[in-house]
Amino acid sequence: MRSGLLLTLALGCTFLSTSHVVAAGDPGDGSLAARYKADARRIIDAVMAGNDAYNKLETLCIEIGHRLSGSPQLERAVEWAVAAMKKDGQQNVRAERVMVPHWVRGSESATMISPRRESLEMLGLGRSIGTPPEGITAPVVVVKDKEHLARIGKAAAGKIVLFNFPMPPYDPERGAGYGQTVFYRTNGASLAAAQGAVAALVRSVTAKSLHTAHTGAMRYDPEIPKIPTAAVSIEDAETIARMTKRGIEVVVNLKMEAKTLPDAPSANVIGELRGRTHPEEIVVIGGHLDSWDVGHGAHDDGGGCVIAMEAINVLRKLNMIPRRTIRVVLFTNEENGLAGGKAYAADHAGEMKNHVAAIESDSGIFQPRGYSLECENDAYEKVALDQLSDIVRLLSPLGPMDAKLGGSGADIGPMKPEGVVLLGHRVEGSTYFDYHHTAADTIDKIDPVLLSKNVAAIATVAYILADMPDRIGTPPTPDASSH
Amino acid sequence: MRSGLLLTLALGCTFLSTSHVVAAGDPGDGSLAARYKADARRIIDAVMAGNDAYNKLETLCIEIGHRLSGSPQLERAVEWAVAAMKKDGQQNVRAERVMVPHWVRGSESATMISPRRESLEMLGLGRSIGTPPEGITAPVVVVKDKEHLARIGKAAAGKIVLFNFPMPPYDPERGAGYGQTVFYRTNGASLAAAQGAVAALVRSVTAKSLHTAHTGAMRYDPEIPKIPTAAVSIEDAETIARMTKRGIEVVVNLKMEAKTLPDAPSANVIGELRGRTHPEEIVVIGGHLDSWDVGHGAHDDGGGCVIAMEAINVLRKLNMIPRRTIRVVLFTNEENGLAGGKAYAADHAGEMKNHVAAIESDSGIFQPRGYSLECENDAYEKVALDQLSDIVRLLSPLGPMDAKLGGSGADIGPMKPEGVVLLGHRVEGSTYFDYHHTAADTIDKIDPVLLSKNVAAIATVAYILADMPDRIGTPPTPDASSH
Q1: Contact (CB, 8 A) for B178 and B400
Q2: What are the phi and psi torsion angles at A293 (to 5°)?
Q3: If you ran DSSP here, which 8-state letter would residue A93 be given?
Q4: A444–B116: do the CB atoms touch at under 8 Å?
Q5: Angle subtended by helix axes B448-467 and B378-392, to nearest 10
Q6: Which residue of A has its CA nearest to B436?
Q7: A124 plus A142 within the same structural domain
Q8: Exposure string (b/e) for A123-139, b if CB count within 10 Å is 16 or more?
Q9: Are B218 and B256 in contact (CB under 8 A)?
Q10: B79 with B267: CB under 8 angstroms?
């Protein structure tokens, strides 16, 4: 039963009658923006006056560090998050066990040995196999993309293929161009192996580099032999490409101890601000607690975790307890398996109908820009977007915001088939991929004021979603809409 | 004899009478700007239509690579530069032997071993001694600056001192703040050793980092025991500082094979565009051919070398042979000894009076902004600045330019006591120190169009300095100034 519908009928048209006018001018008296204006201001002012998010993030980054699935650090992070939310007085705090892939990097190197000896800045890609102890030594063939590789064909046999596909500079309209570029990180090894290559290198997925390698997950095509694969810095990819263009043969030795161990135990961490009237209805907010094994996962996604933790901490301190429950979920294993997100949806299948909405923050901590929204049901999606547009107006003290249709987050994706309204916490994106999956993803890259703004935004939106009389996305009743 | 003075008298006041009005409005008919307007336009148009500078720089960076004093690569670079200038048809092309310091880095690492194991991004500092083979393992004490170290005093004994002095963000008015920051790279080891420290680490001299270490020269105080010293990335310095601030003891193992070998032979490389009427009078233009042993010295200072080489190449192709000689000097050993600059001034002491001016480019290849000027003689300096202000107007097709008093370049500095007018080739400086002395100083950071603009600027100014009737800086005669 969707109790929100009953509430709607009980509360009448004050809320629903305005759900169609959110795009026009100032909010009417009955809009969500009007209803929650004072609450939003109270939350924002309280967060911006001071909060514990930066201390939480610094504790996670400095005292625990990076936390790859299967690592002892990730398990320390699970214990820390449970303890921190208990200390904050959250309810139903628990770690829900999830088995996760356990890939380990080991020692690794890539060295140009001809025409001259030069150490390459590299990072093996997650899930890659390793090399023999002496490494793989072979000439390098440079290709721009898969069409180029197809033209070269079997000439790549016995070689190390370098995919030198550049990520475009950030574009405010089109974004970062991550999707088209990450294709080679994900699929490069099998594409190269299909032509008989002995290893694959990919230019790091970034538009900016200070001799910086970017790791990330790759995937083997089960029909094709597995070969080791690693990312190299833009500088090294360009050097090798320019050498070969000048007719100079480049020989590289690639050494990787990488291997995959049996799955390891990990956990999703949960803590709640229980709803005052409909605690069984849930708004999920969260990020992922795991990271790659370089840097400290400050932007990706320590920040997403601590803004969710701090959002309910602030609301509890303000004694702002919404009708429904706000549930913080810190997912495990987003980076190389998504086991946490899948397990959450499966473990909570019985209460999925009571999941009103889920918000994920996994794009780093920058100036917040609003929210994206997606919902399996198109009619709900349209209504929900109108309502969200209304709500985000209340974030204007934090800067320009908007709501738009779009992807939300990998960890909450498994809830989409259940009809849950999914929101992505959006931020200014011009520098995220400079740090993404690198040793440079550290807390010195986090602006404390922007961190607070992100706490304020997600706390406000989560509060309203959990407190608004009707569930987000519920279409107006015929009576109400004709009002 | 300063033949320029005779020329001045012969040519009368057409040129000199305007040297006092350069700051006001359009150039008069008799100004340098008026005299050389067509020539400047011809040079700029020819350079921007196409030139060989990028090919030269790519050859240096890609085919030779980095070139630290004493390395075989530096000697290959000397041979390449001689061959390239001969191929371009330059005159008196030669390598003038200079003995240079020969410091070698060897293998090196810095590893945090407590509270957890984490590899630090580090680069040993030039001239540092090494460690024992097992390295130096000690707790780290973090200080912000020398006053902080003085307060700690002997509590630093037996420890590794980390100087965590941050370089300020680039400021368009005040510049990069390099001077105040590099103090700790240069002097940190002896400051720490004076308190009994066993090694010194310094935060890399940069305001921006993607886990990037910056090397550079250091200096031991002869009165104080030598201890090994290295730079670490901003990320690592911040991590250690934040750990210690949280009361966590950080222990680091520093391993460095660094050592100084006997001086090695190297050379300044020289090539000339001989003057048509006063070939004995010389305008020097150049940069330094050596680099640090990381990256490829693209900005520092391959770019400075190739713009000078290409400047006379373009003038020769245009058959624009000025009255005086333009001499390209590619200095050796700027980075860790300045042996090339000192040797040039000493070896050419006999002709120093005929050195009309010297221009060094050693600030990277960015948007050119004009020239700085310094001269031992204040009266000459004032006149020279007025004339230079007049000349740089002709660079306006390349962007806004100006002339101002200021430092010129380390390699040409030894000519200052001889009264030579020294010019620094100035460029927009907001990103230079991101790449400076790092593995990221590679040709992918060079914009070909900006490289051409730098060639055009230095070719134009060198041409005018070498061709203007009187030597730059010559005060107007009383008759002329009362005209």
Answers
A1: no
A2: -95, 25
A3: E
A4: no
A5: 130
A6: A210
A7: yes
A8: bbbbbbbbbeeebbbbe
A9: no
A10: no
A121 has catalytic annotation = no
Residue A159 CB neighbour total at 10 angstroms: 22
User: For the stretch A339-372, what's the b/e string if a residue is b when 16 or more beta carbons lie within 10 angstroms of its beta carbon?
Assistant: bbbbbbbeebeeebebbbbbbbbbbbbbbbbbbb
Give residue-wise pLDDT tens across range A440-462: 999 999 999 999 999 999 999 99
Confidence class of residue B445 from pLDDT cuts 50, 70 and 90? very high
How far does A236 lie from chain B, in Å, by closest CA?
A: 9
Q: Collapsing DSSP states into helix, strand and coil, what is residue A63?
A: helix
Q: What is the pLDDT of residues A217-227, one digit of tens each?
A: 999 999 999 99
The total of structural domains in chain A comes to: 2
CB–CB contact A243 B62 (8 Å):
yes
Cβ neighbours of B440 in A, within 8 Å: 209-212, 235
The three-state secondary structure class of A265 is strand
User: CA A48, A50, A56, A62: dihedral to nearest 10 degrees?
Assistant: 100
Q: What pLDDT band is residue B8 in, cutting at 50, 70 and 90?
A: very low
CA B42 to chain centre: 28
> Looking at the DSSP assignment, which residues form a beta bridge with residue B438?
none
Residues of B with CB under 8 A from a CB of A: 58, 62-63, 65, 73, 115-116, 118, 121, 208-212, 234-235, 238-239, 242-243, 246, 248, 295-296, 434-435, 438-440, 442-444
- Average pLDDT over chain B reads 93
Q: What angle do CA B394, B396, B397 make, to 5 degrees?
A: 105
Give the H/E segment covering residue A56.
Answer: helix A53-58
Under a CB-based contact definition with an 8 Å cutoff, are residues B243 and B152 in contact? Answer: no
What tokens appear for A75 in the block?
Answer: 């398990």
A410 pLDDT more than 70: yes
B2, pLDDT greater than 60: no
- Residue B3, pLDDT > 70, answer no
**The two three-digit tokens of residue A20, written as one number:** 């169609």
pLDDT band for B5, please (50, 70, 90 cuts).
Answer: very low
A234 vs A208: CA distance, rounded Å: 8
In a shared domain, residues B121 and B225 = yes
3-state SS, one letter per residue, for A351-364: HHHHEEEEEECCCC
Whether residues A294 and A179 fall in one domain: no
- Domain membership of residue A211 as a residue range: 106-257
Task: Specify whether the CB–CB gap between B127 and B336 falls below 8 A.
Answer: yes
How close does chain B come to A211, measured CA to CA in Å? 5
The pLDDT value given to residue A25: 42
Q: Does A238 sit within 8 Å of B442, measured CB to CB?
A: yes
Strands B421-427 and B368-374, bridge-based pairing: antiparallel
Residue where a domain terminates, one of B257, B274, B293: B257
- Which residues on A lie below 8 Å from B239 (Cβ)? 62, 296, 442
Of B212, B239, B444, the CB nearest to A442: B239
Query: pLDDT tens digits, residue range A47-63?
Result: 999 999 999 999 999 99
Same domain, B211 and B126: yes
What is the predicted pLDDT for the residue at A28?
Answer: 54
pLDDT tens for each residue of A130-166: 999 999 999 999 999 999 999 999 999 999 999 999 9
The ipTM of this complex is: 0.92
Q: Looking at the domain assignment, is residue A210 inside a domain?
A: yes
